Amino acid sequence: MSTTTAAARPVAPAPETTGRKISPASGKRRRAIAQWGFVAPAVIFMVLFFGYPLVRNIVMSFQDYSPSTFFTGEAPFNGFDNWKNVFQDDLFGKALWQTIVFTIGSLLGQFCIGLALAVFFNRHFPLGGLLRSLILLPWLVPMVVSGIVWRRILDQDTGVLNSFLGLFGLGDTPWLTSTSVALVAVVLVNIWIGIPFNMVILYGGLQEIPKELYEAASLDGASAWRTFRSITLPLLRPVITVVLVLGFMSTVKILDLILALTDGGPADSTQTLGTLTYQNSFVQLDFGAGAVVGNVLILISAVFAVFYLRANRNEGK
Amino acid sequence: MTAHPQAAARPPRRRSRRALAPLTVVSALVATAALTGCGQQRDDNVYTLLNSSTDESYHRWDGDTLARCSKQLGVTIEQQSVPAPQVMTKALRMASSKSLPDIVQFDGSEMPTFAETGGLMDLEKLGVSTEDIPQGIVDYGSYDGTYYGAARTVNTLALFYNKDILDKAGLEVPTTWDEMRETAKKLTQGSQYGIALSAGGAEDGVYQFTPFMWSNGGDETDLDSPEVVQALDYWKALIGDGSLSKSTVNWTQADVNDQFMAGNAAMMINGPWQVETLNTKKDLNWGIAQIPVPQKGDDSVGPLGGGMLTIPDIGDTEREKMSARIITCMTSEQEEITYALNSWMIPANQKAADTWRGKVPELSSLADQVATARSRTAKLGAGWSSVSLALQSAFQGALTGQESEAVLKKAQQRLESGN
């Protein structure tokens, strides 16, 4: 996420050179070199760490890339074979659908709860700062650790959650062991993880809204809901776009959480594109097929990155 | 920001030139760092072993063995440990950067994949003997008739039972499927299930399904045969009776062990590598038996497991010969017995196994189980990983409500269509 924001920031302009003894022509060249010198680190970094892997991944999806490739360095091109195999596999459609459900469900939950909490903490009350920092905790815990802890909490027989629900006679929910509930459970855990990120960014956005607007609204006798709809939401829009797009890009590629919680099971019911590319590449060692699924993920993210950049540009106008 | 206040007084031209130099250096550094090859020079007297002994105790046991072999052979042997699922990918990456270690310890189900690339050396040609090693274990370490992997110890699955619970209920240790189902049903009380096993969505679950599939005459090349369907139906019946927790689809073998230790299960299917943990609970009085079979008189066929030492092709025969001597030392009778006693596994060497049996008579049923155990990759070689994935998906589907026959049929079709 941080790389996206950093990349979107314009590169610092080259400093002006005003040498007295330099002729205009050589001054120009010097300036051009200086400009390139400033741009070069960013460009080299992008080419090496973004461009190269991206191109490599695309090429790999058209190759028969097997374990022997690591020895011989040879990966014969096989046209669209990998793509055909992946798209013909039922599991791909299933994983794609589950990725969509997972992403939309997670974003909706994270955003709504995050926004509600941000508005709540914007009211400033005693201990508000402390509570706000405590809510950040899920963000600080490594994803794998949260996954393992939640796996215990959600255990059908011995989990804390079911013991608690048992008090209300609901203690037998098959959180991670039913093909129809597991995806919901995974979404709920991911919402829990994503709330802090949403809250922090939205809270920052709320702080930027001038207080006078709220004062004027209350003078006009606007209700709380009306104020929220006509002042808070419109002024928060740029921040909302950022939160949703960044949230989307980190959610759609989910892997670690699902591996820790369910390993894609039971019976592939929590398999997403992220786990599928992992399974293809690192369990079956069919790197070509893994690259195909990876490319689909990149394509989806790229589409949303374009939305993000356009939204940013519109803001600039 | 005020680190160089004097810089502000200088003419701007100088500042820009001063900024230019470091920038160029940074760019150059980034480029060279990325482009420098990783090919590494091997130290003449230092040999490396890549294994998955990330547990403190295993790392220490292997370290002790290597220290003894180092002394005997006059070389230094270093141990590099990564988590078990990463050994394969790590070794492949090292192969592409020409920095393979001298010896790699693979899991038995992975070795054929690596051997198929042509990246492993024939151990017999390098001087590792197969004398006194039972044919089953030689086959386990072979691919396409060539002996690539020398196992120090092997393991398999067995039925672990809580002696106190069985005695209290006045029940015998079950030996057939029907008996096990009956016993498990009777032992299911309150929060205690009759039996625990792992049907998790990874190799763990498949490993646990194989003894049921194989003892019933089923085969991994024919997943929708009646024998495999019956085996899966048997698992379903255990869940249907309520004797096996539905959480089984989300359990690894370590989770199963936790359930058994916590008293949530009276019996479990598990392997000897759990004994070390089991014994940390002093008041747990457990026993071990062969996995029950469909009918009285059937052979109990378990899966053969355990790491094997291989020598990757590094293109240096002298070094490879020394690696072979290191393996010979690590698989010597004495070293195997020491390692087997530590890790509760069974020595691969027959003579060592006989000595070992005398020292731990309580595990002798495990040794019997190993004698009939079967290698997962013997028939399919590198094709095992696809079957394993299809099988996981199938039995998880069946255990969460679908028909065994339908899911297995789908799995078999999926394999035949090449996906």
Automatic annotation (TrEMBL), chain A:
InterPro entries associated with the record: MetI-like, MetI-like_sf
GO cellular component, one term: plasma membrane
GO terms under biological process: transmembrane transport
Region Disordered, annotated ranges: 1-26
This protein's record includes keyword Transport: yes
Pfam families: BPD_transp_1 (PF00528)
Keywords: Cell membrane, Membrane, Transmembrane, Transmembrane helix, Transport
SUPFAM superfamilies: MalF N-terminal region-like (SSF160964), MetI-like (SSF161098)
Compositional bias ranges of the Low complexity kind: 1-17
Membrane topology category: Multi-pass membrane protein
Record localization: Cell membrane
Annotated TM spans: 36-55, 95-121, 133-153, 173-193, 235-255, 287-309
Residue span(s) of domain ABC transmembrane type-1: 96-308
Signal peptide: none
Family as reported in the entry's similarity comment: Belongs to the binding-protein-dependent transport system permease family.
Record's protein name: Sugar ABC transporter permease
Organism for this UniProt entry: Streptomyces himalayensis subsp. himalayensis
Source lineage: Bacteria, Bacillati, Actinomycetota, Actinomycetes, Kitasatosporales
UniProtKB/TrEMBL annotation, chain B:
Domain of life from the UniProt record: Bacteria
Keywords linked to the UniProt accession: Signal
Keyword flag Signal: yes
Residues in the signal sequence: 1-33
Transport is among the record's keywords: no
SUPFAM superfamilies in alphabetical order: Periplasmic binding protein-like II (SSF53850)
Gene3D superfamilies (alphabetical): Periplasmic binding protein-like II (3.40.190.10)
A Pfam match: SBP_bac_8
InterPro entries membership: Bact_solute-bd_prot1 (IPR050490), SBP (IPR006059)
Protein name: Sugar ABC transporter substrate-binding protein
